[in-house]
Amino acid sequence: MNKIMYLEFERCIGCRSCQAACRECGGHDAKERNYVEYVDFMESRQTYPMLCMQCKDPACARVCPANAIQITPEGVVLSAMEEKCIGCRNCTFGCPFGIPKFDFEENKMYKCDMCYDRTQHGISPMCASVCPSDAIRFIDFDEMQALRRRRTQMNLIEGKKPTEQDKWQYVPEFFGVYSD
Fold first, then answer.
1. Residue 82 Ramachandran class (φ > 0 left, ψ -120 to 50 alpha, else beta)
2. Using an 8 Å Cβ cutoff, are 175 and 8 in contact?
3. Which of 3, 4, 68, 141 has the smallest CB count inside 10 Å?
């Protein structure tokens, strides 16, 4: 997989088209696996898309006693396999981003798997394909590096400083995320 997911939080306009597209994706059983969160609901209307960060060393997979969460050779963390999942919900408690959700009716965990059936063939995930503000993009690694360099330069001009020891350090390079 040469392409990466790229999120630019400040571009999110809160339209929730990513959630609607996710619900329509085949195999999702009409449930969205991504979310749109408010930065601070009481202070502003600013929103941001929240997808699975596809961690390098995913806590959800580490705490799964049944080894039901698989990681593809490309590093995509898949939802729990139905035949192995025992419904303990350790994955939902272990994820620092709060991404995995548990369906009590079906007794299984589900989360964003970056539309692996699409992305393994280089096709954009459903959420990225419909985002009208380009807050979610599926782009080449080189394009992401150029955007990051430009963003870093803008941060220096604007006076923003990088933060250390935040949860974004767990996110691999193929998932281009900006937390500012």
1. alpha
2. no
3. 141
Tokens of 40: 């601070």
Residues written for the chain: 180
Cα–Cα dist 180/115, whole Å: 26
Strand 136-140 relative to strand 108-110: parallel, antiparallel, unpaired? Answer: unpaired
Structure tokens at 10: 């400040």
> End-to-end CA distance of the chain, in Å?
27
CA quadruple 141, 17, 37, 92: dihedral positive or negative? negative
Residue with tokens 């898949």: 78
Kindly list the distances between the CA atom of residue 18 and the CA atoms of 32, 84, 112, 148, 178, in Å, as whole numbers in the listed order.
Answer: 9, 29, 12, 23, 18
Tokens representing 165 are 């020891």
Element containing residue 128 per DSSP (H, E): helix 126-130
- Mention every residue, 6+ apart, whose C-beta is less than 8 A from residue 68: 80, 81, 84, 85, 86, 109
pLDDT in tens, 87-117: 999 999 999 988 999 988 888 888 998 999 8
